[in-house]
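The instructor's notes for this session suggest beginning with a concrete chain rather than abstract definitions. Hand out the sequence below and ask the class to guess, before any prediction is shown, which regions might be ordered.
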Amino acid sequence: MVPLVVLAIIIIVVFYIIGLYNGLIRLRNQVQNAWSQIDVQLKRRHDLIPNLIETVRGYMKHERETLESVTKARSDAMSAVSVADKAKAEGILGGALGQLRVAVEAYPDLKANQNFLGLQEELSSTENKISFSRQNYNDQVLFYNNKIQMFPSNIIAGMFNFVKSDFFQLEDKADKEVPKVNLESYTSGQK
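After discussion, reveal the predicted structure:
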């Protein structure tokens, strides 16, 4: 009777370890899948930028520095490899695109151009998709990192070299700052 109980315990432990291992594999694959979704959206964003630059180049002849900073930021973002490097490069690209949007305000003819409006709409849509994909990716990384750090799955994770994944966090300070609203100047202008 005792050998059967020991054998049953061993079988339960083996199946439990297999379950933990498979769970870690599933979570790691979900993280990779979520990253591929971000990568698809980032590629779409990178593909839209040359068309945007060509569209605005004719109107914004005096904004050469702004256009070059967007082009350089795009190139840096495309060549980044790690999640942390990509996050930093994408933050810089977002800042450069923000400067371009501000510069466009000085060119009313450009703002009325249908091609420009279409590209800007596609770029905004892509930015929203990147934001949703980034949130999903960070959620998957949180689940995965929790699993490989919590007991008892951390033992299995250590045995099979599961490593923590990096969150996709933007370095752009403009994204982190809370916009300041000055109601005093607004109300004084109403008088």
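Then share the key points. The longest helix spans residues 2-57. Residues 21 and 158 are 11 Å apart (CA to CA).
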